[in-house]
Amino acid sequence: MSNNLVLKKGLDVPLAGEANPVVMKVVRPDVVAVKPTDFKGFVPKLLVKEGDPVLAGSPLMCHKQHPEILLTSPVSGKVKEIVRGEKRKLLAVLVEAGEQMQYASFPTGVPDKAADVRKVLLDSGLWCAIVQRPYGVMADTQVTPKAIFISSFSTAPLAPDTEFTLKDSLEDIQAAVDALGKFAPVHICVNASVWSSSPFHKVENAVLHTVEGPHPAGNVGVQISHIAPIQKGEVVWTVDPALLAAIGRLLRTGKLDLTRKVAVTGPAATHLGYVTCLPGTPVEQIAHILPDVRVIGGDALTGENLGKNGYLGFFQNQLTLLREGYEREWFGWAKPIRPKVHSTSWCYFSWLTPDKKYDMDTNLHGGPRAFVETKCFEDVTPMEIFPIYLIKACLAGEIEKMEKFGIYEVLPEDLALCDYVDPSKNEIQAIIQKGIDLMIKEMA
Amino acid sequence: MADEKKTGLFEKGGKLYWLHSTIDAFDTFLRVPGTVTAKGAHVRDGIDLKRVMIMVVIALVPAALFGMYNVGLQTSTLYGLDWSFFHMFWYGLLRMLPLFVVSYVVGLAIEFASSQIRGEEVNEGYLVTGFLIPLIVPVDVPLWMLALAVAFSVIFVKEVFGGTGMNIWNPALVARAFLFFSYPSSMSGSSVWVSKTWVGSLRYVDAISAPTPLAIANEGAYDAISGAVGQYSFMDMFWGFIPGSTGETCVVAILLGAILLVWTGVASWKIMVSSIAGGLLVGWLGNIAGATQLPCYYQLVMGGFLFGSVFMATDPVTTAQTETGKWIYGFLVGALAVVVRLWNPGYMEGMMLAILLMNTFAPLIDHCVVTAAVNRRAKRILNA
Question: Model pTM?
Answer without folding.
Answer: 0.91
